[in-house]
């Protein structure tokens, strides 16, 4: 079966589909008991870089919920690792780098990522693609240069990312040097993912909302456009998720992406008017709704479907990642509701 028959890909391209396809950000993660069982035996890095474990964890949510797309299990921070910057996942903090880029000298010593670092990830993709049903899509991904740079410079999750924001003003040359090296490394990494078999590529600019529109437009967006152009040349759909970017849709619609991922702060109908049916939209249920009762979840999922309304080009998703405290039944309610109700809008 060729890619044209995958409902997720059809929706990315705004073509006719019988129902709204769905997947969930961070669907391969700690809210799943079967993920936690594997995680007990292996550390995060072992899971990312052992092809069989990567395959297993990627397929777990598909087996349980029959989502329309699997997202490969990995992390945006493999890019800094390929440049020699290693992180550890510390409980209750998140990723922490041993050697953050906390001086201009360190930034200027950065070189392009070593593509051989991704060998096991590409092997994992091949294994997943062989086992995943042909009707389902495999989503590859990367972090946006800005979001990845935030972690490299700050060294850990931060409330405000103020050191890297200050760098933009104090040393724009060093900032651009870093962004340039990230962008080229990311493009090579994505090429490898597509060659190994991913069907679409999502770019996560999770930290975009820390920037003013003006700074985003000149210091992050040009790099995003270069990456999207590279994805489009590989003939797979590009999905751009800019968290906090709901008010910038007039700008984001010029990115070249086939799909814009939206957080829950914008109404899908308003977004649809801005992109005028030319770009597909992915989203945008507030993940915190999954902590309420099944009745409320059902009602809110229906609201999202209604807000997109009739027509194609909608991919159901959360407005951001699912958190580890969300009950597995809540996700089943989302899946059942989307499958039952969305055909009414086609
Ligand atoms: O299903 C999937 O989406 C799985 C693949 C995936 C992970 N991280 C696995 C992961 C994806 C697409 C990501 C992207 C990612 N990683 C982003 C951008 C998207 C977003 O959610 O905002 C960011 C900013 C990161 C960096 C990162 N990695 C953080 C902040 C953390 C800690 C998160 C936490 O809640 O503790 C990670 C670790 C991480 N990445 C986990 C998973 C499943 C938790 C790993 C574990 O402890 O088992």
Write a concise synopsis of the structure shown:
This protein is an alpha/beta fold. Helix content is 47%, strand content 12%.
Question: What would your notes on this structure say?
Answer:
The strands form 2 sheets. This protein has a 7-stranded parallel beta sheet with strand order 1-4-5-6-7-8-9. A two-stranded antiparallel ribbon has the order 2-3. The protein has helices spanning 7-12, 33-41, 44-49, 51-65, 78-82, 104-108, 119-131, 145-154, 162-170, 172-196, 213-219, 221-233, 249-252, 268-275, 294-308, 328-341; strands at 69-71, 87-90, 94-97, 137-143, 200-205, 238-242, 259-261, 280-285, 314-318. It is of the alpha/beta class and 346 residues long. It is built from 16 helices and 9 strands. Helix 4 packs parallel to helix 7 (119-131), helix 7 runs parallel beside helix 10 (172-196) and helix 15 crosses helix 16. Strand 6, helix 13 and strand 7 form a beta-alpha-beta unit. It has a single domain (6-345), classed as TIM Barrel (Alpha-Beta Barrel). The structure holds coproporphyrinogen III (CP3). Coproporphyrinogen III binds next to strand 3 and strand 4.
